[in-house]
Input
Amino acid sequence: MIDGKKVLFSGMQATGNLTLGNYLGALKNWVTLSDEYECFYSVVDLHSITVRQDPAELRKRARNLLTLYIAAGLDPKKNCIYYQSHVSGHAELSWILNCYTYMGELNRMTQFKDKSAKHADNINAGLFTYPVLMAADILLFQADVVPVGKDQLQHLELTRDIAQRFNSIYGDVFTVPEPYIGKAGAKIMSLQDPLKKMSKSDENPNASILLMDDPDTIIRKFKRAVTDSEACICYRDEQPGIKNLLDIYCACNNKTPEEAVREFEGKGYGDFKLAVGESVVSVLKPVQDEFARLSKDKAFIDSVIKENADKAGYYATKTLRKVQKKVGFPERIR
Ligand code: TYM
Output
């Protein structure tokens, strides 16, 4: 609790271009929840270097992502928006938690398996312990809730296990966090292969809607989206392409699948795809415009970076000192 409010933590990697999946699965919910909780939203650049990055490019992307958080509607006066690398407590707590996490647990992580298959020439130790750093992010702020897409649930479960293990040894040190999964959009699938997650690293440019795609591109990609030959706009697993488009439509318009199915009754796939594309444009365009405006305001973004890093650092240090004491590190002499 901070000032009587429950705490929320979440983060996003500054790698590649963000997709509609990142927006609907995470960012959009962050904005909705931001009034209710004391929120920490991090640009998780420590996680990004588990995959080889071009330094200048990473720096640029990290700044763009931080700016995008604000452009999407997070008020930096109310929400703590900061770079993970500016708060050393993340790395310090991560080391400690490494010693309370088992190899067997990390071996089971599907994201590790996927990423090591994709980057077979660079299966580094950081990639393996990535979920421990994620646990450290969350536990450092004693977060009650963590809004994420479905693909991060396994990491959240591990975070809870680590917290409970630590608490069972040392007493109530960490708040055990709950995941928050949005009603719609928790797993947006590829537009070209609806059995695969929409991902920023997809090689087929038509598979993903990028947050910065212009309206024409968005509409064109939806027109090309893979569907089926059922000629039925139904919400069911047997029609994964249509189901995914309905999910996107529902997440953009805050509707339930039943409402959406009723709305498109008797309509053809062509009209439906266009309507989904237009909904996405109407959600993304204001974010893009605000991003363009904010990007020019260097002084403002710089001030957010500085003030929020100090705030995050304050809360992080509080938890870290408690943990260091519990595990038996010598006290600091002032
Ligand atoms: P990342 O950067 O891959 O994704 C950021 C957020 O977007 C969600 N997401 C999706 N949601 C729905 N459909 C999709 N196709 C889709 N693709 C991505 C993700 O679930 C995530 O919520 N390890 C995390 C970042 C992280 C983190 C944390 C998150 C580091 N520390 C602490 C929460 C708390 C990651 O790589 O997310």
